[in-house]
Amino acid sequence: MFTGIIEATGHIARIEQIGGDWRLHLESRAMSFSDVALGDSIAVSGVCLTAIAIYGNGFAADVSTETLDCTTLGFHKVGDLVNLEKALTPQSRLGGHIVSGHVDGVGELLGRKPDSRSERLQFRVPQALSRYIAQKGSVCIDGVSLTVNEVQGNEFSVNIIPHTADRTTLHLYQTGRKMNIEVDVISRYLERLLQTDSMSGQGITLDKLHKAGFAGKQVPGS
C-alpha cells in the first residue's frame, strides 16, 4: 500500500530480458534503501514491484508480461527517470490517498499550460475509467497522488505545484506522453457495493438515498 507521495526519482540502470519478461535494475541516490528488505514492495511510477535484490543505492525487480502489457513500463529504456515510493509502514503519514500500485489503465497527456506559479495539465483516460474520475476527487498518475480540478467526459485536469514538479518526473512530460493511471480504490468498491445491493434489493440504493434526503437536491455545477 502506498500514498502517492513520491519519495524520490530514480533511473533505470539496466534492463534484462529473461524468459519473455523483464528484470529492471533501478537506482536512486536521493532515496535510502537501507530499510528495504527482500520481498518488500516499491512503487515505480505507480506500479507496485517486489524487490528481489538490493544493492547500495538501488534494487532489482521482475516485471511480468502482464505488467508490461498493462502499464507504461514496457515503453521505458535505460536512463529513463521514474518516480519511487516505498510501501507504507504503520508509522507512516497518509499524506496523499490510498494507492495500491495496481494500474487501472494508461492515460495520455493532452496539454499543459501555466496557471500562476503552478501548471495545469490536461489528461485523457480510457472511456471505461472515466466514471471513476470525479471533480475534487483523487487520482494517481505515474504514482503521484493528485486532486482532480475539472472533468469533461474522459478528460480531466490537475494542477501541479512547483514542489510536485521538482520532486517527480511530471515536469518532463510533453503532449502525447503516456502514463500509468490508478483511480481511487474507494470508488471501485463503492461501485461494486451498489451493484450488489441493486441485485439483491437490499442495502444502499438510489431510491433509499432519495427517500432519506441524501440525493434529493441538484448539486450546483453538476
What is the topology?
Blueprint (H helix, E strand, L loop, with lengths): L7 E11 L2 E7 L13 E4 L2 E9 L2 E6 L1 H6 L10 E6 L18 E11 L2 E7 L13 E4 L2 E9 L2 E6 L1 H6 L10 E6 L1 H16 L5 H6 L11
Antiparallel strand pairs: 1-2, 1-6, 2-5, 3-4, 3-6, 4-5, 7-8, 7-12, 8-11, 9-10, 9-12, 10-11
Arithmetic mean pLDDT: 90
Q: Which stretches are poorly predicted, pLDDT < 50 over at least 5 residues?
A: 217-222
Q: In percent, how much strand structure appears in the residues?
A: 35-45%
- Biggest β-sheet, characterized? 6 strands, antiparallel, barrel
Q: Count of DSSP helices? A: 4
Task: Quote the distance from N terminus to C terminus.
Answer: 32 Å
Give the strand line-up of the largest sheet. 1-2-5-4-3-6
Helix-strand category: alpha+beta
Count of folded domains? 2
Instruction: Predict the CATH topology of the largest domain.
Output: Elongation Factor Tu (Ef-tu), domain 3
What's the gyration radius in Å? 19 Å
String of helices and strands: EEEEEHEEEEEEHEHH
Please provide the count of β strands.
12
By CATH, the architecture of the largest domain is named Beta Barrel
The helical percent reads 10-25%
Any idea what the shape is?
A: globular
CATH first level of the largest domain: which class?
Mainly Beta
Question: Any overview of this molecule?
Answer:
By secondary structure, the chain is α+β, with helices and mostly antiparallel strands. It has two domains: 79 residues, Beta Barrel (Elongation Factor Tu (Ef-tu), domain 3), CATH 2.40.30; 82 residues, Elongation Factor Tu (Ef-tu), domain 3 (Beta Barrel). Helix content is 15%, strand content 39%. A six-stranded antiparallel beta barrel has the order 1-2-5-4-3-6. 29% of the residues are buried. The C terminus is likely disordered.
